[in-house]
């Protein structure tokens, strides 16, 4: 398993700005080149920092990708939390569809990152990332509980494990834009995913 820990945490404003530039530079390289072609040299170029400065804070490419993933999954967790705990509770299946669209929009902004971390490269799933994913699953469980009679989970732990992974894989495949889907547009596939999810949640 690669070393995913940062070498040191920035304490001064200039150092924090450097680390921020490295992490966001990594996001740009991932979007443009994909995970396989992402390297520390490409990240440093995109960030506008010297390669030595990059290695001062990170030991390798995967440590940077990991920190980026933690940031983006934190944003995703908060998107879900706002939907579940906000003024509008998840009281019916259509609200679940709205939540799914929000999740899709968040994931789509960094599709290459989410796919590489969650599907293609299991070694990038360190303990902090797994903890975040567990928090997201717990929020989904809370949303299902708030849905009351609209959702019938006969075996809640198993049902939620399968449901979250089925939906996450479907979202990632739609975001990836696999050529094998032919003329099926992203919006059409997302509409179908929302419709099928609502139907599945409404079945008693």
Rounded to an integer in angstroms, the radius of gyration calculated over CA atoms is 19 Å
- What is the 3D form? globular
In CATH, the topology of the largest domain is named Tetracycline Repressor, domain 2
SS class: mainly alpha
CATH architecture of the largest domain: Orthogonal Bundle
| Distance, first to last CA | 43 Å
| CATH class category of the largest domain | Mainly Alpha
Question: How large is the count of helical segments?
Answer: 9
* Tally of strands: 0
- Beta-sheet strand percentage? under 5%
Order of helices and strands: HHHHHHHHH
Count of domain modules: 2
Q: Mind describing the biggest β-sheet? A: none
Average pLDDT rating:
82
Written overview of the protein:
The chain is mostly helical and about 200 residues long. It folds into two domains: about 15-60, Orthogonal Bundle (Arc Repressor Mutant, subunit A), CATH 1.10.10; about 65-200, Tetracycline Repressor, domain 2. It has helices at about 15-35, 40-45, 50-55, 60-85, 95-110, 110-120, 125-145, 155-175, 185-200. It starts with 12 loop residues before the first helix and ends with a helix. The model has no long low-confidence stretch (mean pLDDT about 80).
Topology overview:
Blueprint: H1 13-33, H2 40-47, H3 51-57, H4 61-85, H5 93-108, H6 111-120, H7 127-146, H8 156-176, H9 186-202
In short:
This protein is mainly alpha-helical and 204 residues long.
Key traits:
71% helix, 2 domains, 204 residues, mainly alpha, Arc Repressor Mutant, subunit A, Tetracycline Repressor, domain 2
């Amino acid at each position: 398993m690669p070393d995913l820990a940062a070498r040191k945490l920035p304490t001064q404003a200039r150092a924090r700005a450097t680390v921020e530039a490295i992490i966001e530079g990594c996001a740009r390289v991932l979007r443009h080149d994909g995970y396989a072609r992402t390297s520390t040299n490409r990240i440093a170029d995109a960030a506008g920092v010297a390669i030595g400065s990059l290695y001062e804070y990170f030991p390798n490419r995967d440590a940077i990708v990991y920190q980026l993933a933690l940031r983006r999954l934190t944003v995703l967790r908060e998107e879900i939390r706002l939907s579940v705990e906000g003024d509008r509770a998840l009281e019916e299946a259509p609200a679940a569809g709205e939540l799914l669209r929000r999740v899709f929009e968040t994931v789509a902004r960094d599709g290459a990152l989410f796919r590489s971390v969650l599907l293609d490269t299991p070694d990038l799933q360190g303990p902090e990332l797994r903890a975040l994913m567990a928090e997201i699953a717990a929020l989904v469980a809370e949303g299902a509980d708030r849905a009351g009679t609209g959702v019938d989970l006969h075996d809640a732990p198993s049902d939620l494990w399968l449901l979250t992974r089925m939906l996450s894989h479907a979202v990632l495949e739609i975001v990836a834009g696999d050529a094998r889907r032919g003329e099926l547009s992203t919006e059409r596939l997302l509409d179908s995913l929302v419709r099928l999810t609502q139907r599945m949640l409404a079945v008693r």
